Structures are given as structure tokens and as C-alpha cells.
């Protein structure tokens, strides 16, 4: 009998350009009744403009699953490496009060 876990494996393809990733240090989150939009940006000291490196659009259900997965992984990380300290400097919030997206 085959292992049921083997049947549930998902083959994920990661292209070379996507595998390089983007460094981001700010996320701007907006939402409508049908979607969450997360713009991942990079802000640099002394530069008044932030460039969006990636935009992710999620259903509310997937946004909640992402939140749970991040919480779970942060807990695992902190149990292995200690508490993640947030910077004390004045950083902009992750949600800058941008207008909500409308679908």
C-alpha cells in the first residue's frame, strides 16, 4: 500500500530569476471585501521614495492562512534562535493607512 503523504506532495517549480528574491524592509497592506494586496517595498535612508519590489494579491482566506503560517514559523524561529527584537528606531508601520483596494 502506498503512503498517503506521497500522494499529497506538490511539485513546485522555482525559476532562476524568482529564486534570486528581492530584499524588502517594508510592506504596505490594503484590502477590499474580496482581496488583500501586499506591496513589498524597499526603503533606503535619505531616499524619500520607496520602490515596490513585488505585489501579492490574496483572497481573505489565503491572507489569514499566510498570517497563521508566519506566526507559526516565527514561533519556531524564536524557539531555536531567541526572541526577535524589533528596531527601536522610528520605522514606518507596515500598513501606512493607504486607501483600500477595490476589485
Question: How is this structure best described in words?
Answer:
- The protein has 103 residues and is α+β, with helices and mostly antiparallel strands.
- The protein has a domain at 22-81.
- It has three helices and three strands; from the N terminus they run ααβββα.
- A three-stranded antiparallel sheet has the order 1-2-3.
- Strand 2 and strand 3 (51-58) form a beta hairpin.
- The radius of gyration is 17 Å and the shape is extended.
- The mean pLDDT is 86.
Short recap of the structure:
The protein is built from 3 helices and 3 strands.
The span between the termini is 47 Å
Q: Order of strands across the biggest sheet?
A: 1-2-3
Order of helices and strands: HHEEEH
Q: What is the CA-atom radius of gyration, in angstroms?
A: 17 Å
- In percent terms, what proportion of residues is strand? 15-25%
Largest sheet: 3 strands, antiparallel
In DSSP terms, counting alpha (H) and pi (I) runs of 4 or more, how many helices?
3
Subunit arrangement of the protein: single chain
Shape: extended
Helix content: 25-40%
| Secondary-structure content class | alpha+beta
Report the uncertain regions.
Answer: none
Average pLDDT confidence is 86
Give a quick set of tags describing it.
103 residues, 20% strand
Furnish the topology, listing elements before pairings.
Elements: H1 4-7, H2 16-19, E1 26-31, E2 36-42, E3 51-58, H3 60-81
Antiparallel strand pairs: 1-2, 2-3
